[in-house]
Structure prediction request, 651 residues.
Amino acid sequence: MSDQIESILHEARVFPPPAEFSAQANVKAEDYQRMMEKAASDHVGFWADLAREKISWHTPFTVTLDDSNAPHYRWFSDGQLNVSYNCLDRHLAEREEKTAIIFESDAGDVTTYTYKELFDEVGRFANALKNLGVQTGDRVIIYMPMIPQAVIAMQACARIGAIHSVVFGGFSAEALKDRIHDAGAKVVITADGGRRGGKVVPLKAAVDQALESGGHCVEKVVVYQHTGEAVEMKATRDLWWHEAERGMPDYCDPVMVDSEHPLFLLYTSGSTGKPKGIQHSSGGYLLNAIITNEWVFDLKDEDIFWCTADVGWITGHTYVAYGPLALGKTIVMFEGVPTYPDAGRFWQMCERHGVTVFYTAPTAIRALMKFGDEIPNQYDLSKLRLLGTVGEPINPEAWMWYYRVIGKERCPIVDTWWQTETGAHMIAPLPGITPLKPGSCTLPLPGIDAAVVDEAGNEIPHGNGGYLVIRKPWPSMLRTVWGDDQRYVDTYWAKFNNRYYVAGDSARRDEDGYFWIMGRIDDVLNVSGHRLGTMEIESALVAHEQVAEAAVVGRPHEVKGEAIVAFVVLKGEIPTGSQRDALVQTLRNWVAKEIGPIAKPDDIRFGSNLPKTRSGKIMRRLLRAIARGERITQDTSTLENPQILEQFMQK
Ligand code: WT7
Prediction:
């Protein structure tokens, strides 16, 4: 396959860090050496030292790692802290007037918040939440546009020890409803609407729809007035953000919580069942958030850091709402989309705000690359000094474009491998030290014991693919799946007898030990850098009155990474001609409504039955081959009903 030959050729390209970059880097070669040695000889001590140095503890911890109940690990468990205190209060003495957030709206208006202003906003809103009866440990759903109030709401929850769960504003009312129910949320924080690409996204209306059928514990819905559009306000349940804040003082005492106190839940897709509420801790999470922003993004006081991720994803937690603020740095937040008003928006914003460190997803890079070099070349990108990517493997062609056209061959690119579950970067270059290879996330960070193992859990020789695992616990690891601890054990630990964390990705290492991520092992798709469970999309399709059965697989897509292909069995006859086209549209829109536009199938095929083995298992590998338009080379003799393959090959 031409693909493989290409990747072998590209492996030969190595980009050592520029000397000027190395000279000023937060982590220098000698620091790296020292850290690697310390982590190898004293894993627990390594993390204890960092936790003491980087976090302001209210009560210092004496126990670093409690592994008495593995695979449930507890970090710094007798220590107490407040995450919002670490992100705000501790900077006031030195950085009161420093800009914390530069916000650019969809329309291009800019608002900034200094650390003192942010501190006051968070305090006032935290008091408002307390006044509404939100207590330490209560769950709060945040369903907001990408505006500073989303971060203020998250920080306010952290301040009073409430557990937030941010639901991406692009998710539908149905998806929101599932998360509200699963989390047992008491309060929902939302906005009237958001703006993306010149269009209004109604959010409050979706909350109303999610709550309509009852059976939840939501007592209050707080609505931030952002677009000014008309929304319905339910008398005792709903109130405006500004009303909730009326008469509230700016200062709110931070509630000191145990290090293990859950800071947030974030829902992510699995291959089966409903989305999992990934539960993160306070102290451990904060530690990896801090050190990775320092080590991998090399953040300095003068930096303007723009991570383009929405706060609805883990990236927007660790590299927008928490990590950079805990370091007292300046971040950019953007409400809109990269292609509005035109495909120069990102580059225009980099110039306008003097962005120095820029972090985005390969899918965005590929989408913008299509518009050519002229657009980025119109802007002054000379302030950029470091670039990053996350979400999926970046193809060498996109890497080279990013490197050449955006970074002007001057900026290292940090390709960061991690997951919702890991909380922070696990495998990533240290930009002042690690020679880069386009398409590889390079090497594990100090303290992270990542490996590639075979079915038996033995490390396999470099060059071969296997399971990507992490063999030692780390502070920001997920603690459990909310409300389903068995699923935590089964999904992440059972495969190798609770010894290793199983990431669910396959990977190989090259002759230098560099990691190359090969993709997910299970049936989870990676669409535009985000995990979508095939099972969820299948359930959505089956929920449509005309659908009897559905199977969903991925097919490579040049911009999105993977495109969604759905194989559908209808209850009635398969329609033809324009009726068929109409039904395809109906089903695509149906999935968008049930889950969100991100899950809309790109392609829907109809057949009178799904290809199954005699034991009734759907032959997904076969469907994948059909979806890719490949010739079927596999043995189909075990197929119950071979003739349906023909049907599914028709578009
Ligand atoms: C999955 C995690 C972590 C925030 C974004 C997505 C894939 C992530 C990379 C990378 C190759 C990557 C993996 C991983 N992935 N980063 N740099 N190179 N693959 O978070 O939704 O939890 O998805 O994204 O498959 O398991 P997520």
About this structure: The CA atoms of residues 15 and 638 lie 49 Å apart.
